[in-house]
Every structure is written in C-alpha cells, then in structure tokens.
Design brief:
This protein has 265 residues and is an alpha+beta fold. It is 51% helix and 9% strand. It contains 13 helices and five strands. The protein has a five-stranded mixed β-sheet, with helices on both faces. A hairpin with a 3-residue loop joins strand 3 and strand 4 (63-67). The two termini are 32 Å apart.
Length: 265
C-alpha cells in the first residue's frame, strides 16, 4: 500500500500526542483509529504482539485503545531493565503476578521502580515498530496518545496531522460516530469516553494551531460535535464537547481553545 506520508516526514499514518509530563510517566494510553473497519482476522493479528506494558485493551470495528496500568515507570523497568526483571524473579514472582492483584504489594518490595531513559527508549521503539506492523496489517489513519514517543519519526508527524485534520481526519471521525459502531461492544461507555475525548482534543489542537480557521471550518466541526452529543449524550467528557460547541457557535470565535484532559480508560 502506498504510504500517505513519506518516511522522511514521519510515519505512514498521522500521530498526535497530548502529553503534560514531557515523558512517559504514570499512565500511557494510545487510541488507534483505522482507515476502515477491521476484519476479525486483522484484529487477531493486531493483538498478537502488543507490547506487554499496554495490557488494557478495548476496541470496536474501527478503533483500538491500548493502555497501561498506573505507575507505568515500574512496568517499563520490569519489562526492559534486566536487573529489575531478575529481582522480580528472585522475589518469587512472574510478569503475570506483577500484572495481577498482587501488583501494588510487589511494587513495595522492589528496590527501584524508576524507569531509565534506556527503558523508555526501548519501549518507545518497540511500540513504534508494533504500530508500523499494525499499519501493514490494516491501514491506520491516526494514533492519539497521552505522551509523545521519544522517537524522531513521531516528533516529525504532529504538524502534518493538524495540517490535514479537516480534509483527511475529520470526515473519518464523523463516519465512525455516525455509524454508531461503539453501541455494539461490551465496554461501549469506556471506548466512547476515550473517543469523545480524542475528538475534542483533536479539534482543540487544530484550532489552537490554526485559530483563524475556526470561522472557515465551523460548519463541519459543529456537525461532528453535534453527532457526538446525539450518539453519546451521557459521556463523562461531554462538558468539553459542549464548551467547544459553544465557542464555535459564537459570531466571533475566541483566539484560544481549551483541550480536554488526557485520555484514559
């Protein structure tokens, strides 16, 4: 498949991050938005090699959310730091124990739960490699994450995402909400809240980067916000959707637009 974005510019799909820690810290979450609905075989192939720290997963036909537990630094250190992995074994535990109900008890027994820069880089490159593999299995449109991966290809992609937001990304967001595909999954309220938050953050980021476009593109942006309100009127993040809708409905749009908190399951 021909890449929409050349490797020199970044990745073959769009990326946006809404980080506040400037690094991977307490929690990491990433929403994958696909160009089209997934087939069952594609979904099975996608879920085969997801990096271990991202154990919380929920998805619909076109979406897949991956999230870590709290205290992701400890997960990164256990997964990628040989000394900590050996210490976990010496205490008589496995990775499954560390991801289970004894997690916080085990955390108090570890001598160090602070991930090194190398641990973070290893995770970043593993996740980037997995995302590229996922894109080869089923075309990705966009990944939206709580923190930017510290890799050069991810850093290069943020500007392109916002430049093409109205022409490439906005129609797909509208299509997913209009299809009501989230209504047909067991954890629909969780994924709907994450997707709602992501849409608000994308619109807010676009308007922060291009405030003069608020008037030009208010109609399609308002249409998406109204579709979200109709599809999921009780979402926890609805106040952000309402605020964005109110701001865009003004005759004179504000110079700045707020973004919602970080996505989280």
């Amino acid at each position: 498949m021909k890449e929409r974005i050349s490797p020199e510019e970044g990745l073959p799909f769009y990326t946006l991050s809404h980080g506040i820690y400037n690094d991977i810290y307490r929690h990491y979450g990433c929403l994958l938005i696909f160009d089209r609905p997934l087939q069952e075989a594609e979904r099975s192939a996608l879920e085969a090699d997801i990096p271990w720290p991202l154990r919380e997963r929920v998805g619909s036909a076109s979406l897949l959310y991956l999230g870590s537990e709290d205290w992701i630094d400890a997960d990164l250190r256990i997964a990628y730091h040989p000394e900590s992995a050996a210490e976990l074994t010496a205490l008589g535990y496995t990775l499954s124990d560390f991801a289970g109900p004894e997690r916080y008890s085990i955390l108090t027994q570890l001598s160090n739960t602070e991930a090194s820069e190398q641990d973070k880089q290893t995770f970043a490159h593993e996740l980037q490699s997995w995302l590229l593999q996922a894109h080869r299995i089923a075309p990705l449109l966009l990944t939206y994450a709580t923190d930017p991966l510290p890799t050069s290809r991810f850093r290069a992609n943020q500007r392109r995402c916002l430049s093409d937001f109205v022409t490439r990304i906005l129609p797909r967001l509208q299509e997913i909400w209009s299809s009501r595909e989230l209504d047909h999954i067991p954890q629909s309220h969780i994924l709907a809240s994450i997707f709602d938050n992501t849409c608000a953050a994308l619109i807010g980021s676009f308007l922060q980067a291009h405030p003069r476009h608020a008037t030009s593109y208010s109609a399609p942006l308002l249409q998406l916000l109204e579709t979200i309100q109709q599809a999921s009127p009780k979402l926890p993040q609805q106040r952000w959707i309402t605020q964005l809708h109110a701001a865009l409905s003004l005759a004179q749009q504000p110079d700045t637009f707020a973004r919602p908190p970080l996505i989280s399951a």
